[in-house]
Amino acid sequence: MRKSEIRKLFGLASVKGNALVPLSFYWKNGKVKVALAVGKGKVQYDKRQDVKERDAERELKRATMQRIKGR
To answer: pTM higher than 0.85, yes or no?
Structure first.
């Protein structure tokens, strides 16, 4: 990478909530190349929604298993 590209990625990653994410690694002419992306983390309300969905799916699975077992 060129110095300007490194500065640009560092600036994007230094913003709170952003992170550099490696997408892939590959070899080219005896060097390891990395495809990078800037990702933005989830906000708190998104996390809560995922937890609710996970809990609901777990309860559904538990109820289904109890019904199959005949309890």
So the answer is: no
